[in-house]
Design a protein that fits this description.
heterodimer; A: alpha/beta; Rossmann fold; 6-stranded mixed beta sheet; two-stranded antiparallel ribbon; 8 helices; about 20% strand; B: alpha+beta; Beta-Lactamase; 3 domains; 14 helices; 13 strands
Chain lengths: ~250, ~375
């Protein structure tokens, strides 16, 4: 699937506009990111109603590339300061407000991030299928300090996904701050984007927990997921909206 | 108690002494010392002597423990505040956490050492958490790592939560006989529902359907429980005497415990210090007097029974004990069903400690039915 150019579906850099302040304040608590339990969601006052759309996102990548750290970074959780192999599977929730360009409508994207330790996937056959079950997007991770993890990307992408899967695929390069030790050059990245037609995002370094570093990635994820659903609904029979507590994108388009 | 700074944990294969991992202290022990620690234990085994613990004059400890004739854990502590009981519990907890993650079979019948080494890495996060216990404020008041009892809070109206928990576990097909997965759901920050279950239903299904279905109606209820638990794990119907600083109550049959810190200000003893004193007093009481809690297991004869002549000089088991320090007074009561460990203010006359303790025990058990 071709990817959507930044800003074509949603207002880019919306988190910088004064209009967005009230929405972003709902995902903050005492100037840090608010931690949401499974029973919680941002609640807006009635005149600023924003629907919540839910997506499952699987983080894939070699052991040690930084899947858990990326999840923590996106969700605003405390980042582990030393590397631990993830014991089994971990999920976390990220809420992200966006504004649709055409309708001006505001939505909260709820990304449900799934992260799984590599040993666990090897030991237990049910782990990988369970991560992929109902997934709407996969983030393929590599580390800028580990060339092997970059070279493994394309085989990894073909190994765990089928071309026919209805999935948003994005690539994220982690530990970009350690550019002194980088094993992957800009030329490698450009070539990779051209050949595979998948955008590459860079993260690492920002420990302040601000939105600056994560906004491009979360916005791209939101735009591509939204676009994917629009394409799907326009080519298939619309499904009857369910009333399961959230509004699916199908009924808004 | 900055344990992680002073406790080092080593894991080796029991038969060949191959090091599998080392955690804890930032400065690793040199390989030659690890070899000697293993060698001295092996020497004992060869002469039909079980080496379980040794102590230095400065209060440091080395503790050996072999599990299932397969793996050996060695705990090394240079900190006199880390008791032998503490270290022993630590080794047991680490072993149990390895069993939780990898399964007993994998550990007891390890065939490929290199593979085991790699797989043990997924336990490091949990092991380091056990080593760092007590460093973090959020652990305060939790004693399970030391007492091996489940830390509980007693809620004013537990029925609704109990019913919901039961329906939830039924829906997740939880049955202890097929414990393939442990699923933990963070309902609210600070509230986690855990289910042991088999291969079905999938995590996605439980998280997206059942969690909301069962727990959403209770969100407010859980929030008020959180507020309550922050203050005390006892229900509000229990009023403690003003001069009680802290208590630990254990139900010996159900292996459950509750703790409480008095909310009345005691400026000279911080909450952290009171929790620490409670742990130290518990250790003191169960290793010297209430030794029945420390029943010798086949694998590890308890060290107390080897060198503590005091209690073995009596034909009875003590049921009360007390200790007066320059910070507080401590009293412990043991009945067939309960153990109570109590810290009081220095102002309480020593001769009344006994009645303060027995009244507190009565008051708490009568009001809560714990």
């Amino acid at each position: 699937m071709a990817w959507v150019a930044a800003g074509s579906v949603m207002v880019s850099d919306w988190h910088r506009s004064p209009e967005s302040r009230e929405y972003f304040s709902k995902i903050l608590h005492k100037k840090k990111r608010r931690k949401f339990g499974l029973l919680e969601a941002p609640v807006m006052p009635p005149h600023l109603k924003a629907d919540i759309v839910r997506y499952k996102v699987f983080l894939s990548g070699k052991s040690g590339v930084g899947k858990t750290t990326l999840a923590a970074r996106l969700a605003g959780l405390d980042m582990p300061n030393i590397h631990y192999e993830t014991t089994g599977m971990e999920t976390c929730a990220v809420f992200w407000p966006v504004k649709l360009r055409e309708s001006g409508r505001i939505l909260f994207f709820h990304f449900h991030l799934w992260d799984c330790g590599e040993n666990a996937t090897r030991r237990f056959d049910h782990m990988l299928p369970s991560c992929k079950e109902h997934a709407d997007a996969i983030l393929f991770l590599f580390s800028f300090t580990d060339r092997g993890s970059f070279e493994d990307l394309s085989s990894q992408m073909s190994r765990i996904t089928e071309p026919s899967d209805r999935l948003v695929r994005l690539v994220v390069g982690t530990k970009f701050d350690l550019f002194m030790h980088t094993d992957v050059t800009e030329r490698d990245i450009t070539r990779f984007q051209e050949v595979l037609g998948v955008p590459v995002f860079r993260v690492g370094g920002d420990v302040s927990g601000g939105f600056g570093e994560i906004a491009p990635l979360l916005n791209a994820l939101a735009e591509n997921l939204w676009h994917q659903d629009c394409m799907h609904t326009s080519t298939s029979v619309p499904t009857v909206p369910s009333n399961s507590g959230h509004i699916g994108p199908e009924i808004i388009v | 108690m900055l344990q992680s700074q002073s406790v080092q944990l080593l894991c080796l294969t029991a038969s060949s002494g191959v090091p599998l991992f080392s955690r804890g202290s930032t400065k690793q022990l040199p390989f030659s010392i690890i070899g000697s620690l293993n060698g001295v234990h092996m020497f004992g085994t060869g002469h039909d002597a079980a080496l379980s613990c040794c102590e230095t004059e400065q209060g440091g400890h080395v503790l050996w423990r072999v599990f299932h004739d397969s793996l050996m854990l060695i705990g090394v502590s240079s900190n006199a505040n880390v008791s032998e009981l503490h270290l022993r519990r630590l080794l047991e907890n680490v072993w149990n956490c390895m069993v939780l993650v990898l399964g007993l079979d994998e550990l007891a019948n390890a065939r490929n050492v290199e593979r085991l080494k790699r797989e043990l890495r997924s336990c490091y996060g949990l092991i380091d958490m056990l080593l760092e216990r007590g460093v973090d404020d959020r652990d305060q008041g939790l004693m399970g790592d030391l007492t091996h009892c489940a830390d509980c809070i007693l809620l004013p109206q537990p029925d609704l939560i109990q019913d919901t928990l039961e329906s939830f576990t039924r829906a997740a097909e939880s049955s202890p006989n097929v414990a393939l997965r442990l699923l933990c759901f963070q309902l609210l920050p600070g509230v986690i529902a855990c289910v042991l279950c088999g291969p079905r239903p999938s995590l996605y299904q439980v998280e997206n359907e059942q969690v909301c279905r069962f727990w959403s109606p209770l969100a407010e209820n859980l929030r008020s429980c959180l507020d309550h638990a922050e203050r005390s794990s006892l229900s509000p119907s229990v009023s403690l005497r003003r001069d009680v600083l802290a208590l630990l109550l254990i139900n010996r049959e159900s292996r459950r415990s509750v703790t409480s810190l008095s909310t009345k200000a005691t400026p000279h003893l911080s909450p952290a210090r009171r929790w620490e004193l409670l742990r130290l007093f518990y250790t003191f009481a169960v290793t010297r007097y209430f030794t029945s809690e420390e029943s010798p297991s086949s694998e590890c004869p308890t060290a107390e029974l080897l060198h503590e002549e005091f209690s073995s000089g009596f034909t009875h088991l003590p049921v009360h004990c007390y200790l007066v320090t320059d910070e507080c007074k401590c009293y412990a009561v043991q009945t067939p069903q309960h153990q109570l460990f109590l810290l009081t203010d220095l102002s309480v006359p020593t001769f009344t400690l006994r009645s303060v303790a027995t009244h507190t025990l009565d008051a708490v058990t009568t009001a809560t039915g714990f």
